[in-house]
Amino acid sequence: MLKKHPLALYITWIVALAVIPLPLIILTNSQLTTDYEDLFAYDVGILAYVWWLVIIFLSTRPR
Asked: What is the average pLDDT score of the chain?
């Protein structure tokens, strides 16, 4: 379905890779008081974890 509509495909990937982890990153950055280097490491960890969950979800081949 999305192969016929490339714009919808790109928007879907942007949502899956950027918008889904955004609330977790904002919540983490607002609640923790630590160095910026540590916050960046936590943010990268959140991104990796959420992307891993998206990969697991897509591997189940949802309709």
From this structure: 89
For the chain, the residue count is 63
Axis-axis angle for helices 36-59, 22-31 (nearest 10): 150
pTM for the full predicted model: 0.76
Q: How confident is the model at residue 28 (pLDDT cuts 50, 70, 90)?
A: very high
Which residues make Cβ contacts (< 8 Å) with residue 13, sequence separation at least 6? none
Q: CA-to-CA distance for 63 and 18, rounded, in angstroms?
A: 22
